[in-house]
Description:
Layout: E1 11-13, E2 18-20, E3 24-38, E4 41-54, E5 63-76, E6 79-91, H1 93-97, E7 117-132, E8 135-150, E9 166-179, E10 184-198, H2 203-208, E11 210-221
Amino acid sequence: xxxxxxxxxxxxxxxxxxxxxxxxxxxxxxxxxxxxxxxxxxxxxxxxxxxxxxxxxxxxxxxxxxxxxxxxxxxxxxxxxxxxxxxxxxxxxxxxxxxxxxxxxxxxxxxxxxxxxxxxxxxxxxxxxxxxxxxxxxxxxxxxxxxxxxxxxxxxxxxxxxxxxxxxxxxxxxxxxxxxxxxxxxxxxxxxxxxxxxxxxxxxxxxxxxxxxxxxxxxxxxx
Length: 223
């Protein structure tokens, strides 16, 4: 995929007075179970683990995200309609390992606080299977809305970024896949993401709310 812009900024290091790019590694593991109680109905359950590891300047952002997802899919000839619910929990393990000062905070996009949160995500999708230039094509429109609550117990003067913070995230995605042959498929997609952040400190809305759009092209070959 191609991302012309990404919302993460360079971060300010309060210890060195310098800015550094926020590189990070992400490892993701997923397990799924499919069950079809009827010909036109399918139920999918999954568990997921994401592990974030930032660079040497920002180990306080490291953490693990656990989530459980359930999805129900209804089929009717060329149509597929799905509804889903996901519960997620982020454990900001890097913060617990670091001894971040409770009194130093700079009015910038810096985070010295505890970023644990819980998240409820609701999703819906509509998929249509059709012919395009005599090729089998699937087109899907999906919407996901996540409600994220941060869990810090620190006072607002010590953790203005996370105290009483709530994020609403909206993700609208349109994707299409074409089976060019038995082994080759082509996919095209686009997403628009909005995040509205609010907390006890009004600066959170300014530095944490964002809009993001991206698109991707994928060519797959089955061996």
